[in-house]
Amino acid sequence: MSDQSFTLHAIGTIHTPWTNVAACPRNGRQIDPAPACTVRLFPEYLEGLASLEGFSHLILLYWLDETKPPALVFTPPFDTERRGIFATRAPWRPNPIGLSVVAFDGLDGPDTLKVRYLDCLDGTPLLDIKPYLTTTDSQPDARMGWLDPHATRNRQTGRG
Length: 160
Known about the structure:
1 helix; single chain; two-stranded antiparallel ribbon; mainly beta; 8 strands; 2% helix
């Protein structure tokens, strides 16, 4: 067992319509139309937004700071079998890091990104932003294991 520890620093704050866990969607593609959300960067990170124009989608990593304690095995609410946490996207992980591929609708001022398809609470700490690359991040023939029958289908492709 490793005793490594890490220090993470928020680089900004995510703003969504959801103020409590019960109201938050299971994933950002459930709601149609997807609500507009914003991501506001802290001033010391604004230079990092250079050259972001032109990307249609981004990957956001964020800290799920209002989640239950970690559970390595649990029964998902839409399933009848116990599943390992690493075979799910449940938020109660050993490190509660959330990930969303969002549509990037441009900047709203020098410190604010306009995005859609988020599934986190208003005020969630942002850890990182990465450009979504179709050549690297898309795997059309990927299989979804036990989750396939439960998948939220992509409205553009009809696939999970």
